[in-house]
Write a structure and sequence with these properties.
Layout: E1 2-7, H1 14-18, E2 20-26, E3 31-35, E4 39-42, E5 44-46, E6 56-58, E7 69-72, E8 82-84, H2 86-90, E9 128-131, H3 133-136, E10 143-149, E11 152-157, E12 169-171, E13 176-181, H4 194-199, E14 212-216, E15 228-231, H5 237-241, E16 254-255, E17 258-259
Antiparallel strand pairs: 1-2, 2-3, 4-7, 5-6, 7-8, 9-10, 10-11, 11-12, 13-14, 14-15, 16-17
Length: about 270
């Protein structure tokens, strides 16, 4: 495979350079696959066989058998790096958390057979914690679910990778060694009592969001915190006051690259 650049429909000068994107071209398939910003490097693992002169084995995506790439800093990307499968990035697998719209990275994948999959590392992956309030306000269906990626645990909208690009995101405290959706493995309908069903959800917030279970790292939280903390992330005072948890507001959530506001405030377009 070879990499090349495609030129977008932007204006000249600096914008012309910014709108060029990378394309990975397969001569066998005679097809191009889009790549994100950053420096793509083949991901490899050491071979257990001493007879292998290369001593490295390319990591393949278990979904499509394409070689996995590691994206590192460069070409406008300044993050800490992540993994991506070129084919899944272009054609996101719907059965593993994608929606077919592309822009799909390994940390968004829910395939439990892959060690690079961010979503598949948690039994709570894909479980809706609450409906996305901003998608609902636009008559769209979006669900906020728990995921884990290279930065930690996060609650994000299912429409993040879709054409809607909903960026509703709640980063959970880094002091947590593990976060799970409360009793995510058990069906609420099979609970033995109504009180047990109610204990899984918050009854103070609209639409009864699911509670989360935080397991804190030793010595990382104030002494009045228990080692395990069960709460609603939307209304829990300890998370907000002691852990500095912040919830997205209307003007912070961006869709299609523009801020989504309920009204036209001062300074807005008319």
């Amino acid at each position: 495979m070879t990499t090349a650049r495609t030129t977008g429909g932007g204006r000249g000068g600096a914008n012309h350079h910014r709108n060029r994107s990378k394309l990975l071209y397969c001569e066998i398939c005679q097809r191009g696959y889009s790549l994100p910003r950053g420096q793509p490097n083949p991901e490899a693992t050491e071979s257990s066989s001493s007879s292998n002169n290369n001593n490295n084995i390319c990591v393949q995506c278990p979904i499509c058998q394409f070689q996995v790439l590691k994206i590192t800093r460069g070409d406008g990307y300044e993050g800490n790096g992540y993994h991506v499968c070129p084919r899944c990035f272009t054609d996101a697998p719907m059965e593993h958390g994608g929606n077919g719209a592309g822009d799909f990275r390994c940390f968004s994948c829910t395939n439990s057979e892959c060690s690079l999959s961010g979503g598949g590392s948690s039994s709570s992956s894909g479980v809706e914690v609450f409906a996305c309030p901003f998608c609902l306000g636009r008559n769209k269906q979006g669900s906020i679910s728990l995921r884990k990626n290279a930065r930690g645990f996060v609650l994000s909208c299912s429409n993040y990778s879709s054409v809607d690009k909903c960026q509703y995101t709640i980063w959970l405290p880094k002091e947590a060694s593990n976060v799970e959706v409360h009793d995510a493995n058990n069906n609420e309908e099979s609970s033995s009592s109504t009180s047990q069903q109610q204990s899984l959800r918050c009854r103070r917030c609209p639409n009864a969001p699911r509670k989360l279970v935080f397991t804190w790292k030793s010595g990382s939280v104030p002494p009045h915190f228990d080692r395990v903390h069960v709460c609603c992330v939307l209304c829990d005072a300890l998370l907000k006051e002691d852990m500095g948890l912040k919830l997205p507001s209307l003007n912070q959530v961006r869709i299609h690259g523009r801020s989504y506001n309920a009204g036209r405030g001062r300074g807005g377009r008319r």
